[in-house]
């Protein structure tokens, strides 16, 4: 199941970025028990008019959680217990800045997937 929200505008200097937030559930394996799902929050970021797309994926597990009905959609809880709200433009900006610092180029025709937990710590 994929729920898509409309894209939102993020202005960085003279550049206009768009971003969206989705919550996904995907089957873990073909033989998985029905109803068990891999829960994740996905922040999509792209610069207007350019082909590159970045997906920052927050998967549940390893002491980190994504919403399961107790928190609002877009909340992620790091292993240290700190809750971040992926609906906040400032959080998305921090993720974008870290991805750019690591070499993501919105001009490249790529669809890059990055682990959100690794971007969140320095951001």
Query: How much helicity do the residues have?
Result: 10-25%
H/E element string? EEEEEEEHEH
Cα-atom radius of gyration: 15 Å
Please report which band the strand proportion falls in: under 5%, 5-15%, 15-25%, 25-35%, 35-45% or over 45%: 35-45%
Q: Tell me the total number of β-strands.
A: 8
Q: Overall mean pLDDT score?
A: 82
Oligomeric state, counting identical vs distinct chains: single chain
Shape label: globular
Distance separating the two termini: 29 Å
Structural class: mainly beta
* pLDDT < 50 stretches: none
- What's the story with the biggest beta sheet? 6 strands, mixed
Summed up, the domain count is 1
Number of helices: 2
Task: Describe this protein with a few key phrases.
mainly beta, six-stranded mixed sheet, 15% helix, 2 helices, 38% strand, two-stranded antiparallel ribbon
């Amino acid at each position: 199941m994929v729920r898509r929200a409309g894209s939102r505008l993020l202005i960085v200097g003279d550049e206009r970025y768009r971003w969206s937030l989705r919550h996904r559930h995907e089957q873990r394996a073909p033989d998985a028990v029905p109803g068990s799902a891999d829960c994740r929050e996905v922040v999509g970021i792209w610069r207007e008019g350019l082909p590159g797309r970045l997906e920052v994926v927050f998967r549940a597990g390893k002491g980190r959680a994504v919403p399961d009905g107790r928190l609002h959609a877009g909340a992620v809880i790091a292993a240290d217990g700190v809750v971040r709200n992926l609906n906040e433009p400032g959080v998305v900006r921090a993720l974008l800045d870290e991805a750019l610092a690591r070499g993501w180029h919105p001009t490249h025709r790529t669809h890059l997937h990055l682990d959100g937990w690794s971007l969140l710590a320095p951001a």
